[in-house]
Amino acid sequence: MKNLGTTQKKKNLEYSDFEEIDPGYFHIQFSIGGKVFQKAVDGLIAFDRESLRDLSDEALDEALNDCSYWRFTFLSAAAELEQRLMREERAYNSWIAEAQTKAKHIVIQERNRLIREEKIAKGWFGTITKQDIESAILTDPDLAEEFEAFHARMDSMRKNIRLLNGLRDVLQDRGGYLQSIGKRRLENRKLKFAVRDS
What we know:
Blueprint: E1 27-32, E2 35-40, H1 41-45, H2 57-117, H3 130-139, H4 141-197
Antiparallel strand pairs: 1-2
Helix pairs in contact: 2-3, 2-4
């Protein structure tokens, strides 16, 4: 996707651009229905370390099967994670409703303290705003800790959903590439047979 106002051309990345990345970055582990999946992703998506033209038909079929299997696995994992995210969001919505009530009481108590101890006139305070409540949540140690924990979990789930969907798309592209190699081989064989027959 091109950013508005950007004229810089997209850089073609080479495998060497990734040589400094920790290999552990490309390992993923997740669980679907109690079954744990571990995979070194770079083996699925790397092209530069293999010569696809030299693959035997059996190896090509196996590579296509791997693409299909892992593409569906990543799709399933993303769907499972999306369900968990929805449950987490429902739990957060329930928690935030209670937290807002507590925060409102915190604001009221603080205003009462200022009126009593600092002799500030009641008229100086307007109605309690949404920002007052958000500030009370973020400054109360217990509420802030739970707020951050909820958001950390949801952010992590969203990130992993994007990652899994990205891997699914990469494998779809790879599967298409492998299929085109298979089709070209078949066409070449047909041409060779046609030449021999004539």
